[in-house]
Amino acid sequence: MIRLTSDFWVSAYLTRLRLVDIQAFVVVRGDSTAGSILVKVNTLDGKGTVFQRSFDLMTGARNWIELATGDEPMIDASIARQRSFDPDLWVIEVEDRDGRHLLDEAGFIE
Predict the structure, then answer these.
(1) Contact at 8 Å (CB) between 26 and 94?
(2) Which residues does 55 contact at the CB level (< 8 Å), separation at least 6?
(3) pTM of the model as a whole
(4) What is the pLDDT of residues 49-60, one digit of tens each?
């Protein structure tokens, strides 16, 4: 199976979000080839959720799972912990009052 580089995936994701008028930004740029990606969804009310890509060893499936959800300072602390042991990590922030992130749509899940 061919894997997309992190840089390419992030670029495609930001474009897809832009097409449906969802604001998103690269907060931390990680390794362009193989950096892991966190997606923080900010609902603009002081709350949010951060998602990470997970690999199921039993099925081989890759899914987006919630790493943390709650108040924004708690979310940011969770991201900071992840960054402390993964310097190649990307952080994308999505700003949407309805909490839309599109990670559950075809093309973003396997």
Answers:
(1) no
(2) 61, 62
(3) 0.90
(4) 999 988 877 877
Query: Is CATH 3.40.50.2300 the right assignment for the domain spanning 6-95?
Result: no
Looking at residue 108, what is its pLDDT? 60
* Structural domain boundaries in the chain: 6-95
Q: What average pLDDT does this structure show over 88-102?
A: 97
Q: CA angle, corner 67, sides to 37 and 97, nearest 5? A: 85
